[in-house]
């Protein structure tokens, strides 16, 4: 451990206490938001690169706190995971996303699917599949319209469990995608073993496509590999026309990113879908 003078040590403890206190306040506020409102879901379109057609949505949780304003997911998702609140939060996102998708289907956008992120702790819940069944049933949308995004790290925690859960989800017709692909530890070997429908290339590789030859090579290799394994590929974090063109030229099917649209509240998404509809 680092050598700290007595004064520094006291300073360190004080700082730690302050941070713990703030974390506890944040946790309390998040609990209250789950009960009294403040949690919403936004949707980012997943778009076909060849023609700009919206084929799906990713549901992303949004929290607006009365005092703090908008709290970024990067601040409260880790806290929710540590405290177990993620199970309730994740279920809220699933329920909301399925309900709002049902409305979009009724409006005529009936080919649309929605992807929901599953946290590691949710994935470990023994009754996860039954809970998802219940929410799908209540919403009235077909199981095939739901996609679950799972990170490599979550999958690798308990491989046999992951394979079993993914298999059951896919038996129902739902799709399973690996999120943040390239940032974890899964090898080609695992890619072949896991029952998955697609993968999402992490935005860290997409960001510098145009300027970094290594990233460009990694991205085109992932696309080629995914196509060989007949997996759907989504590139995340596409912000520029140059990235869009590169991905399309290298055979990537789908993209998500600010270049096309940021995540939108349900009503704004509805308007965008009306403009995007062919014919
Ligand atoms: P993620 O699943 O990788 O989601 C993609 C993130 O990239 C989102 O951030 C999205 O807003 C952002 N993004 C989309 N397009 C672009 C772009 O062109 N450029 C840049 N720089 N960013 C872009 P967000 O909404 O802040 O979420 C961050 C992370 O928090 C997510 O990463 C996910 O890990 C977690 N998260 C968000 N919502 C949920 C949820 O409902 N459940 C769980 N378990 N995790 C969630
Ligand atoms: Ca995701
Ligand atoms: Ca991602
Ligand atoms: Ca991420």
From TrEMBL:
<feature type="domain" description="EAL">
    <location>
        <begin position="23"/>
        <end position="277"/>
    </location>
</feature>
<protein>
    <recommendedName>
        <fullName>cyclic-guanylate-specific phosphodiesterase</fullName>
    </recommendedName>
</protein>
